[in-house]
Amino acid sequence: MSDLPEFEVSARLAVYAVEGIPEIGAGDSLGELIGDALQASGLAARDGDILVVTSKIVSKAEGRSLRADDREAAITAETVRVVASRAHPGGVTRIVENRQGIVQAAAGVDASNTAAGTVLLLPIDPDASARSLAEDLRARFGVRLGILISDTLGRAWREGQTDAAIGSAGVLVVDDLRGGVDTFGQRLEVTQIAVADEIAAAGDLVKGKASGVPVALVRGLGRFVVESLDTPARALNRTGPTDMFRLGTDEALAEGRARGYAEGYAAGLAAAARAAADS
Amino acid sequence: MSDLPEFEVSARLAVYAVEGIPEIGAGDSLGELIGDALQASGLAARDGDILVVTSKIVSKAEGRSLRADDREAAITAETVRVVASRAHPGGVTRIVENRQGIVQAAAGVDASNTAAGTVLLLPIDPDASARSLAEDLRARFGVRLGILISDTLGRAWREGQTDAAIGSAGVLVVDDLRGGVDTFGQRLEVTQIAVADEIAAAGDLVKGKASGVPVALVRGLGRFVVESLDTPARALNRTGPTDMFRLGTDEALAEGRARGYAEGYAAGLAAAARAAADS
């Protein structure tokens, strides 16, 4: 595969599929296998390159596979908190906060592109997995590259899924424009762009779900690649007090109603007692 | 700007910033101005190219500007339904469903990158705007290109914003993998990729919020570009019965509590009346 011609970094980006990565098994050195594929592809790694790595192969390398007859139990075990659930013809969709702090369907437990009869859990700590990969590949190629680990997430209010970054090492996950000004000299209103999620999405466009190509190389975004590997994608998880959607609407209506009923019942009894006392 | 060398479409994509688009005013022909910029840039439009156009310049061309002292009123006027609102030091964030059917903060009313003292509303019908642009540019360049109109959206459960597609013409917005199989021959679990949103995100990485470059050209995704211009991004809006987050948690708790309180109060009174009758 030939290189792109030189180009203005701020003006362009290119995304390559890194082909030739074999089926991954527990205990494999992912850094070595991705490095070999990069080298064989003719894509010489460069300063500022970002590798987007599908979480699935990280999970496989880390031995996060389970027997499939445990799938519902696995989801339950990976769940820290149920956000919402809904029955549909194919079963029940559970949207939960998982151990990684991500709110997603089925806690990220995955049954596609895995050996028959097994499911895969997400890496225990995707940011740590990204750091380990970045260390290996920076040492091997002698350049400052960044790693994003991606997973496929559904979204509230929008159909379909998009890829997002669940692990990062050496890649700034947010482009913080707070305090910046626009071309009219006014303060920017939209202030924090989740660039790691945008990069993961761009990577998905060449990796593809059905293609079996699990790694994309993104070139042209060196401005987001930093020396430090401590750039956790976990910072993109919004849970806690600023989460306006910590419970699904039906769940919150039911919880509110139960609370209100108890309060109203007590108030009704008290009102009746006062009325009886007055008469 | 030189062209990319020939490459395997499925293996790579490239994103270019389309520079040289002037400040847009009401009544400007956006198709003509984008076409001129494309031509001047040396980026010869090709079959399968996708132009990602920031909604802001579409709004400007369509004269969707209002005086800024009307901003809160403008948000209210653009709101079909309030999903959630939250007070914070800078004011109140309102997440609403707007006239375009999109759930987003401030109904998409925008005060950055606009002339001082004005705000911009979203295009009335971004899919229609995309169709009109696609017709102009297909006629001019004689190639089958696609148009996406992008806007910046916040997300539930994730920090920061990403760009998404709010208008589409000639670009399939969803890559429907239902019925597909993975490399193990198993049915794919993740079935509908919102590729239009992923492409809008990729475009944002070269357009940039503070750069004033409002259009990106995405090359290499011709498999999503179709002859028909009837490929509405509106189909990506999920509202109605399948929306599990039609109300914010606090709002739903409050609504449920009020309902429950009324029911409980009546039940408390009734219980007291029965007890009095029995005694």
Could you characterize the architecture of this molecule?
Two copies of one chain form a homodimer. By secondary structure, chain A is of the alpha+beta class. Chain A has six helices and twelve strands. Chain A has helices at 30-41, 55-61, 71-78, 126-141, 195-207, 249-278; strands spanning 12-17, 50-54, 65-67, 79-88, 91-98, 103-105, 118-120, 146-155, 158-169, 175-176, 192-193, 215-219. In chain A, strands 1-12-2-8-9 form a five-stranded mixed β-sheet. The first copy, chain A, has a three-stranded antiparallel β-sheet with strand order 4-5-6. In chain A, strand 5 (91-98) and strand 6 (103-105) form a beta hairpin. In chain A, helix 1 crosses helix 4 (126-141). The relative contact order of chain A is 0.18. Chains A, B: InterPro entries: F420-0_g-glutamyl_ligase, F420-0_gamma-glut_ligase-dom. Chains A, B: It comes from Subtercola lobariae. Chains A, B: Residues 21-220 form the Coenzyme F420:L-glutamate ligase-like domain. Chains A, B: Keywords: GTP-binding, Ligase, Magnesium, Manganese, Metal-binding, Nucleotide-binding, Potassium. Chains A, B: GO terms for molecular function: coenzyme F420-0:L-glutamate ligase activity; GTP binding; metal ion binding.
For the largest beta-sheet of chain A, the strand count, sense and barrel status come to: 5 strands, mixed
The spatial strand order of the largest sheet of chain A comes to 1-12-2-8-9
Number of distinct helices of chain A: 6
Unreliable runs of chain A: 1-11
Task: Please give the share of residues in helix of chain A.
Answer: 25-40%
The N- to C-terminal Cα distance of chain A equals 93 Å
